[in-house]
Structure formats: C-alpha cells, structure tokens
Design goal:
Length: 318
C-alpha cells in the first residue's frame, strides 16, 4: 500500500512537470534569439574564411542565434584575441567562437574565459587533453600525413635522392609532425623549414633558400608565399603540395602551380561550431563532445567533378 502511494505521488509530480514544460513551450517566443555568438578569427575578412563564414551564416538561421564576426587584423596573438573577446563580450556576446589556436597561452586563456561563458575553439583542438574547452577542427596531424601520402603516390613511394623544403606558420606544428612522420625512411632529405610571416605572404619566401625538388606548404599563407616567389627564387623548378582552403589556393592548383591540395571542410567547421555554442547556451553545459571535421583531396584532374562542386560552391560565398 505504501509503495502504491509513492507511485501515485511520483506520477503526479511527473505530470505536473510535464504541464509546466508544455506551458513554457506554448508561451515561448519562437522568433526569440537563443543568444549572441561572437566569432574571433585572424584576418576575418580574408577569402580563406569564405566557406567558414557561409557555414556560420547558415547555422545562425537554423539555430536562431545571432552570429557576429569580429573585424580583426591579419596578425593574431593570445593578447589580441583576449582583447577582441573582451570587446565582443562588452558588446553583448553570450558565447564566443575562437580560432585557430596560437599556443598553450591561448588555450589557458580560453579555459579561463570558459568558466564564465561558453567557448568553442575552431581550427585546432586544445593543446591539453584535460582542457574543458569544446573544439570543432580538422585533425591537423592526419592532414599532414595525408599530404605526405599524396606526394608519395606521385613518386611510387620512393623519394630517394629527392630534396624537400617545408613552409608553414608558427602554429602548424601538428601538420608538420604528421607530414614528416609519414615521410620517415622514404629517402627524402629535408633541406630547410621556413616559418612564414605576414610579410612573406606578400613578398614571398626568402630568395636565399636552397633549391629543392619538392615543397610542402602547410597552410593558406604558405601556399600564397610560395606562389608569390617561385618564379623569382630557387623554388621555380620545385613541385609543390599544400594544405589550404582558400579560392586563391584552388586557383594555384587549377593553373598547375600546386600539384595537390588537402582541403579541410571549414564550412562544416563554421556550421558545427555555432551548433556547439548554441547547445552550451541552451543547456548550460560545462563541456560537450568536440568534433573533428573531414577533409578532401583536390587535384587538377578532379577539381571540377560533381563530388567537389559543393566544396567549391561554399568557398565562393561572401
């Protein structure tokens, strides 16, 4: 009898909760925004982020959230990111999407901010597995390995006697690690590594770099720097491979300046990051599962196939 009474009371409580939930759903404004999400990117107006910005735009409509992309400069440091985040929070941002990471200092800074409001990292995962920050990013280590595999494919897996130069940003350590790991014991000699600067993107890599047979450019800036300088430097006879997601990089592929491109799906990165931020806002969760986005391999011969049309479409959106 006692158990029967407890069961009835439990049913009444659950029934009451259901009624309250139904009333809340009926009285809620379906057009009310979930909140405001600010996005902090280096050189946010650059064409390399066109696909990501399109993903942000589509997700904002689907999730009924206001998304604003901060107007930033080309160079980004942890201090500058903190400044932009504070600025957007002061302007009413309820959550922030930030990326790519510039190192451990930034990761620690984002973890501290995450204690007060939702934070989603994009472009790279936190440097520590213990970080509480949610991320949406490609696997940069795997993309580096994939680039090496494309190179090896063209030389039947044998690079004996070949020389190689690597161009990358300061933050591309995992791509470089994956690339070099896949080329270990393949006979290639890495003659130099060039860490790219903003000036090099405009002026090209230093002319003093030794001639090489192969070049790996591990990001959009590096591909642009190689393209700018290859005719007037010791790199003019090199065969180049790259990791990039800009229309500029695709142009270099189409014209034969680059042999193959690994292109991360940054449209999905933008879309999913807004979804993650919205979940964190709605359900007040400390952290939710991070997401790894895919990549595609582009070559001149498959550039305009049906499978690549969606990717190219998103890259050409404003």
């Amino acid at each position: 009898m006692k158990n029967h009474k407890i069961f009835i009371m439990l049913e009444l409580v659950l029934g009451g909760m259901a009624v309250v939930l139904a009333l809340l759903m009926l009285t809620a404004d379906p057009d009310a925004s979930v909140g405001k999400v600010a996005v902090i990117l280096p050189d946010s107006d650059s064409s390399r982020w066109a696909s990501l910005r399109y993903g942000l735009k589509m997700a904002a409509a689907d999730y009924n959230v206001e998304v604003v992309v901060a107007d930033t400069g080309e160079t980004m440091t942890a201090a500058k990111q903190k400044k932009f985040i504070d600025q957007e929070v002061a302007n009413g941002a309820d959550a922030v999407i930030v990326g790519p990471a510039v190192g451990e200092e930034e990761t620690a800074m984002l973890a501290k901010i995450e204690q007060e409001r939702p934070v989603v990292m994009i472009g790279s995962a936190p440097t520590s597995n213990k970080s509480s920050v949610t991320s949406v990013a490609p696997d940069n280590l795997v993309m580096g390995q994939a680039l090496a595999e494309e190179l090896l494919q063209d030389y039947a897996g044998d690079l004996e006697g070949k020389t190689l130069g690597i161009i990358c940003e300061e933050t591309d350590d995992s791509k470089e690690e994956g690339f070099e790991r896949a080329l270990a014991d393949k006979g290639v000699v890495i003659k130099w590594r060039c860490k790219i600067s903003d000036e090099m993107k405009k002026d090209g890599v230093p002319e003093a770099l030794a001639p090489v047979d192969l070049v790996a450019a591990l990001d959009d800036k590096s591909v642009a720097a190689y393209a700018e300088s290859h005719k007037n430097s010791n790199l003019k006879n090199a065969v180049a491979y790259g990791i990039a997601h800009s229309t500029e990089a695709v142009y270099y592929l189409d014209t034969g300046l680059v042999k193959a491109l690994i292109v991360p799906d940054i449209f999905s990165m933008g879309y999913l990051s807004v979804g993650k931020a919205t979940q964190l806002l709605q359900f007040h969760l400390g952290k939710i599962d991070s997401k790894t986005v895919a990549y595609q391999v582009l070559r001149g011969e498959n550039l305009f196939t049906e499978d690549n049309q969606k990717l190219l479409f998103t890259m050409n959106q404003n």
